[in-house]
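seq as requested:
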Amino acid sequence: MKKKWALILFISFPKFVYGQTIDNPSFEGTPETGIPPPSWYICNTYSTPDTQPGTWGVTSAASDGNTFLSLTTRGALGYPNDNTLEAVAAKLNNLKSNTCYNLSLDLSWFNEFRWESIHYQPAILKVWLSSGQCLKTELIWTSPLINHTNWQTYNFNFNGSKEYSHLLFEVNYSGSNSYYGSMLLDNIRIEENKVNIGADVIICS
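struct tokens:
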């Protein structure tokens, strides 16, 4: 009797490998006005990020854990902090240069975010790799306008050109004009993303 042979085809799928960490990636802490959660640093002049919920009327639940972060932009009303942007940074542990990573985070907007009579509008987020605590060394992602009130997950790949020490998040205006805007952030995940296409070839999409 003749032997029958089966052809087995091996297909390589994207492989996600833990690459490095950020301390407190879910922004856990005590809800406070003008103070970010532990392990996060305030960046930019007049920046006063808030640990939420409970500040400026925000009543949203966290997408992960108990607390989250809010950042705001400011318009021009004759205050010293006119036309300023809030930002925070966190230390990166063991980020490797010329390596592909995938970063995902949860974003939303609270439509009743208010200060006195000012109603805050939707904004965008810029993500930077930093060679110092608050330096904007390499821009790796700009979000679309975050105008949804439910948490939505965004993710992107990046490949740093060198070893960086910090990751920085900065809320920004949508367009060229300044205005009062706000954004909620939670649940950051960073993984080394290796897409193996065979013959020891790895690409970063």
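Confidence is low (pLDDT under 50) at residues 1-20.
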